[in-house]
Specification:
heterodimer; A: 745 residues; alpha+beta; six-stranded antiparallel β-sheet; 26 helices; 50% helix; B: alpha+beta; globular
Chain lengths: 745, 230
Amino acid sequence: MTCAACAKRIEKVVGKLEGIESVSVNFATEKATVAYTPQIVRQSDIKAAIEKAGYKTLDLKADTTDTEHLRKQKEIRTLLIKFIVAAIFGLPLLYLAMAPMITVIRLPFPKALDPMRYPLVYGLAQLLLVIPIICVGYRFYTAGFMALIRRSPNMDSLIAIGTTAAVLYSIYSISQIVSGHYIAVESLYFESAGIIIVLILLGKTLEAISKGKTSEAIKKLMGLAPHTAIIIQNGAEREIPIDEVEIGDIVIVKPGAKIPVDGTVLSGRSAIDESMLTGESMPVDKKAGDAVYAASINTTGAIQFRAEKIGDDTALAQIIKLVEDAQGSKAPIAKMADIVSGYFVPIVCAIAITAGIAWFIGTGGDTRFALTIFISVLVIACPCALGLATPTAIMVGTGKGAENAILVKSGEALEIAHQIDMIVLDKTGTITEGRPTVTDIFTTNGMHDALLQITASAEQLSEHPLGQAIVRDAQEKGLALHAAEHFEAIAGQGIEAGIDGQRIFAGNRKLMEAQDISLASLTAEADRLAEEGKTPVFVAIGGILAGIIAIADVVKPSSRAAISQLFHMGIEVAMITGDNEKTAAAIAKQVGIHRVLAEVLPQDKAEEISKLQDEGHKVAMVGDGINDAPALVKANIGIAIGSGTDVAIESADIVLMRSDLMDVPTAIQLSKRTIRTIKQNLFWAFGYNVVGIPIAAGVLHLFGGPLLNPMIAAAAMSFSSVSVLSNALRLKRFKAVHSDQKEFA
Amino acid sequence: MMNGKKAVLLIVAIALLFSATGCVWLKHLDVVGQGAIASFETLVNTIPDQISKDGNGGWSLQAPDGAVSLIWHTDWSQNPLYDVMLQIDATPFLAAGLAPDRLPANYSYDGDTLMVGVKLGESALLYTDDTTPIQAFEQIVSLRGEAISYHTIHDHFSISLGDGNTFMWAKDLSINERDIVFHLNPQPLIDAGVDPNVIDGWTFTKVETHVDHKLVQADKIIKTFNLQID
């Protein structure tokens, strides 16, 4: 494929096949994504259709990462060599053509090539110099004329027609010189054809190099995986290529080595650096039963684990696929550009012919002038920049997101995300840590640790999150737990246990009332805790209230700042939760949210999103992918936070691998920057054409203004591609802006 | 499509072949030179009465009014001063104020005749048969081709006589109204006291001409003839 028109053509021919549900071809990544019904159409049919249209296909599965990388490097090398060869012949050709015209200073010029004295030698010398240039640029002609024959002209067609016209007319001028019409020496256009090819090859070389850079994110991700793994086979260690690891293999990872595949730890303990997956720089402690992921780094101890997910099934591979799919997807704005470029080339051909004929008639038959106009219009109008404008920005944008642990599933998600004016945040696990923790301990006798120890001892058999929070707190404080003599969970109220011969009750007000235990001594504290949105666990020992352990799901450290940032960006923030109104209100107050949707059952969250959309908002929902799936799908943009699970990836449009709420405004900012870059690129791409075509067609010349020399047109056209790519690469410097402004809460 | 190496080898081979046979090729490729010879021959054949042998071993093409002649020699080894020149009746120049002792070195004066021209070389020149005017002219094209030019403006060939003096003749005598033109650089004559505006039989005017590929308007003293060829 040489331009977006080629991509459009492939979509058209494949789309016509029966059994094809959808087809999307990305010019920038050179990949086609086809959804089809295998019972109706086969892969070989699809490939045949593409090859019949004149394009080669590569089997993606067979084309490994390394092979594709090598292929791209070879492509860059080939283009570079072609450009250098073309330039070696192009520069003297340009000099021959231009030096006699430069009259301000006298440039050295061989007498044997004096155009006035030896016009035939002059012309033939230019012809000899242009032939090698045409040879190295032959692809433009084969692809361009084939496309023309197939009635699907593309960028190459414009170049092929324009330069062929220039060369043929120049050869005709040479024949005129031989016939004695020496004045035809002024009608040679070999340098125009040659320099057009040189400049386009330069543009293509820079384009290939830049494309390589735009997909660096993928390369970096792919480079994370190790190439070998050490497995235990027949009691002995054996190092094998990573592709040979099978599910069920026992894999050993020594300190400093990378985890080769996903699995579950069988033995050993270590701290694993999972920053490549989660972005968290602190290594995570792993022991038997914990999951480990490919490409994460084993830092301290040696571990053995069972391989459970290999190859394309690892979390890393899933992330890579997600980023690749996002890069290959089309934003609505890109589809518009594709439609335009599909019609663009035929329209430009029509303009070129019309302008050429009009000037031929208008100048009373000046073929030279008409030809210059014709060639200039064809060359300046090349839509190659248009085809690059959107995909390059999306490639860099999604790649940048991946670097920041923000996975964007599609270009469409990027485009919609920048339109969001309301974000609904789930409470538990999104705004809060999602893990209840002990926040306060009140006692009647001032012995906090003792109360905690005995309550934790009572709760150690409890499966309730509140009970587990108390046990965790005691363990963290290093308090020894005593065995319970007996234990009973009282549904909806709390627990009763026997510890060291004492009868312990721990639970809510209902439990205390049922056991006729007075709360008078700590009523004020209990009320205050409720106001703060904390859950009081009343503890009675031997029938008397001993104290209150307050438990709350703590707000994440970054939540308030993140919400403030969203307000600053002009986005309204609401909180949705199944929790009671008081708790919800208290949390909302902490983080500065005014709009609270409380006591919402999980199955009703999607309905609440719908109501907000009915108010006219473009709504993003942020939650964990598991419980909030329906709401995530319902929202205009679903953002799953703190999870790389299959469910999250399935239901969300954007996956935030870290648990940091600050990634939400970052993702929105990235989206805005990417869309802005796309619009800038389209401006550059269209701008060159919109301004250049009329000038090339001679509109300004009608009023005494300038014409556009074909070589200048070629330079401008190459420059437009380079400027679009360079602008897209600027996205690599994206950094989220977190303003230290006053909070709007 | 042949691979890159083969393509490069082919190009190099063509270039070497061309270099080796360049001289031969250049002669055949010198369309202006060949055209100049053909049109000069037409001119000579058109006005045979104006063509005569010069007393010093050259050929003379005399203007219809006899006031100036183009002389080109057959043997460049014999002439100390000029191999091609204009021989001009000095009378109108003298009348216009010419002080012959103020003429520059490339001018000669022998009382009633001015001569201005250029040495082309010291070669004896070889001829297969008796020297004809055209054969002698061909030697100029072959050996001093840079002295011959083609001017697109008026569709003329010219032979340079040095210092801005030229003789021009039409490429196609049948369609050109200025069939032969004698050009003199006015400045040396002005420096020698001539008033260019009052030279009888000559015109002082601006002429479009190419100098170093640049089209310029140059002052010239010219004498033009339309030979009225059908």
